[in-house]
Amino acid sequence: MAGQSGEYLLRASWMAEADRITIASGVPGYELMLRAGRGVAAAARRMAAPGARILVICGAGNNGGDGYVAARLLQAEGRDVDVMAPLGPATTADAGQAAADWAHAHGAAVAVDVDLASYGLVIDALFGAGLNRPLEGVALDLAQRINAAALPVLAVDVPSGLSADSGQVLGAAMGASVSATATVTFAARKPGHLLLPGRALCGAVTCIDIGIAPGTIASVGRGMFYNSPDLWLTRFPAPSLEAHKYRRGHVLCGSGGPLSTGAIRLAARSALRVGAGLATIAAGPDACRVHAAHLTAVMIREAEGAGDFARLLDDVRFNAVILGPAGGVGPELAARVEEAILRGRALVIDADAISSFAGAPERMAALIVAGGGAPVVMTPHDGEFARLFGKVAGVMDAGAKYERALAAARLAGAIVVLKGADTVIAAPDGRVAINDNAPPWLGTAGSGDVLSGLVGGLLAQGMPGFEAAAAAVWIHGAAARTFGPGLISEDLPEQVPAVLRRLLQQEPLA
Ligand SMILES: NC(=O)C1=CN([C@@H]2O[C@H](COP(=O)(O)OP(=O)(O)OC[C@H]3O[C@@H](n4cnc5c(N)ncnc54)[C@H](OP(=O)(O)O)[C@@H]3O)[C@@H](O)[C@H]2O)[C@@H](O)CC1
Ligand SMILES: Nc1ncnc2c1ncn2[C@@H]1O[C@H](COP(=O)(O)OP(=O)(O)O)[C@@H](O)[C@H]1O
Ligand SMILES: [K+]
C-alpha cells in the first residue's frame, strides 16, 4: 500500500508471488532455498545441544527442500542428523536438487516408525505454504507422534497442519498440526503466525531475510500489517507548544442509567489519559448524581434522552463521541448513534451501541454513508460481531478472522476492531492490522470500555480512524503488560502515561 510504513504480513499466495518476482529478477529458486535452509540450520544449532541427535522430517515439496538443505549443513558441521522422507521423493526441481545433494553425501532416509524419543530435536519440514488440505495418513500420524513425544520441535515456515493464511488447523475437528517450540519463516511473517491458534502452535517465530527485496514484499502485500508503532507512530498526535485544551479535542461520552455508570467513566478517563483535551459524560439526572460522586477531571452534562443528547452536539467542540459502554441496548442508544453520525462526529461504537443495531448492519452502513466521512470505529468482541453481522452472507463465512473483519468493515463503511487475544483492525479501504501484544490478563471486566476510550481520545485529537484504532489496541496491550498480573480495568488508564512516555520519547518499548 503506497506510502504506508509498517511490517507487511503476507498470505502464502502473495509470498509465492514475491518468490516468482525474485526468481525472475535473476536469483535462482535453489539459491532462495539454500538461504532458507541456512536459516533453519542456524536456528537448529541454537536449539539442539551439541551431542543431541537431530531428525529432519522432509515432505515432498519445497518445504521439504529447505529441510534437506538444513540437514546437509548441520551434518557437515559434525551434527548427528537423520532425515525421514515419509511422503516419498521430492516433487519440485529445487527440492529434488536439495534431496540429491543430501543423499549424495549421506545416503538413506530413516524409517517412518523410527523411535522419536531418541532425538533431541525434530525439524518439521513436511508442509509449509503449500498445505492445502488437512493432514491425513502418514502425515497426520507423524504430527500426532511428534506432539506426543514432547520433544523440542523447529518448524520450517509453519508447523505442518497449520494454515499460514488463517492461523487455523486445516480440518480442525479431525485434523491436526505439529505444535512447535519455534518456527523459522522467510522474508515476511504470515498472518497464521499471529492469529490463534496458530500463534500458540508456532512457538517463537523468527523471520529471516532470504534476499527478497523490501520493495518486492511491499508490491505483493495487500495492506496487511503487524500492529506495532511502525504502523501509526508518524500519525500519533503530539501536543504542540501553541496547543490549548480545545485543540486537543473534546470527547462526549454517553452514559447508561444510574446503576450502569462505571463503564463510561473508564472510557472517559482513558480518553483523557491518551491525550484528549477534555472529556464530558452525558447522563440522565439520576446517573449524573452517581457520576458526580466519582469524577474530577471528567466533566458531566445532563442529557435525558436522544433529543437532549442531540442538543449537546450543537456544540461543535464535542468533536468525538463514544457510545455503548453499559449504555443500555435499545432504540434510544441507536438514536444517539444516528445523531452522532449524521452530525459528522468521529465516533466509537462499542458494546450496547453495537447490539442496538443487532441484525441491521445495513442500517448502520446507510447512516455512515449519509454522515459524510468522519471516522467511525466499532469495537465488537466475537459475540457482538455475530449479533451485528450474523445474518449477513459473506461476513461470518468470509474465512480467516481478518477476512471477517474486512468484510464487515467494507459493508459498514467503518473501521472494525474485532477483539480477542488476536485483535484484528480492518478498514473499508482494505487495510488490516493484526495485534499480538495483549496479555491474557487483559480479559477482565471493563477492559473493553478502556479500549473504546483510548480510540475516542485519539480520534478527538484528529488521528485518522485506522491508525487511531490500531494505536489504541497496541497501547491497551502495552498498558496491560506494564501493569502485569493482577490487572483490573481501573489500572489500565493509569498505565497509559508510562506507555506514552516510552512511545513518544523513543525509550525501548515493552
Ligand atoms: N516462497 C518462497 O519464497 C520460498 C519458499 N520456500 C519454501 O517452500 C515452501 C512451499 O513449498 P511448496 O509450494 O512446494 O509447498 P509445500 O508446503 O512443500 O507442500 C508440497 C505439496 O504438498 C501437497 N499437499 C498439500 N497439503 C497436503 C496434505 N495435507 N497432504 C498431502 N499433500 C499435501 C501440495 O501439492 P498437491 O498434492 O496439492 O499437488 C503441495 O504443493 C515454503 O513453505 C518454504 O518452506 C523456501 O524454499 C524459500 C523460498
Ligand atoms: N485472552 C486474552 N488475551 C488478550 N486480550 C484479551 C483476552 N481476552 C480479552 N482480551 C481483550 O480484552 C478486552 C475485553 O473487551 P470486552 O470483551 O469488550 O470486555 P468488557 O465488555 O468487559 O469491557 C478486549 O480488548 C480484548 O481484546
Ligand atoms: K513445516
Automatic annotation (TrEMBL):
SUPFAM superfamilies: Ribokinase-like, YjeF N-terminal domain-like. PROSITE patterns: YJEF_C_2, YJEF_C_3, YJEF_N. K(+) binds at residues 63, 124, 160. Its cofactor is Mg(2+); K(+). Its EC number is 4.2.1.136, 5.1.99.6. InterPro entries: Carbohydrate_kinase_pred_CS, CARKD, Nnr, Ribokinase-like, YjeF_N_dom, YjeF_N_dom_sf. Keywords: ATP-binding, Isomerase, Lyase, Metal-binding, Multifunctional enzyme, NAD, NADP, Nucleotide-binding, Potassium. Residues 15-218 form the YjeF N-terminal domain. (6S)-NADPHX binds at residues 62-66, 128-134, 157, 263, 381, 449. It catalyses: (6S)-NADHX + ADP = AMP + phosphate + NADH + H(+); (6S)-NADPHX + ADP = AMP + phosphate + NADPH + H(+); (6R)-NADHX = (6S)-NADHX; (6R)-NADPHX = (6S)-NADPHX. Binds 1 potassium ion per subunit. AMP binds at residues 419-423, 448. Residues 228-503 form the YjeF C-terminal domain. Gene3D superfamilies: 3.40.1190.20, YjeF N-terminal domain (3.40.50.10260). Homotetramer. Catalyzes the epimerization of the S- and R-forms of NAD(P)HX, a damaged form of NAD(P)H that is a result of enzymatic or heat-dependent hydration. This is a prerequisite for the S-specific NAD(P)H-hydrate dehydratase to allow the repair of both epimers of NAD(P)HX. Bifunctional enzyme that catalyzes the epimerization of the S- and R-forms of NAD(P)HX and the dehydration of the S-form of NAD(P)HX at the expense of ADP, which is converted to AMP. This allows the repair of both epimers of NAD(P)HX, a damaged form of NAD(P)H that is a result of enzymatic or heat-dependent hydration. Belongs to the NnrD/CARKD family. This is Bifunctional NAD(P)H-hydrate repair enzyme. It comes from Camelimonas fluminis. The lineage of its organism: Bacteria, Pseudomonadati, Pseudomonadota, Alphaproteobacteria, Hyphomicrobiales. The gene is nnrD.
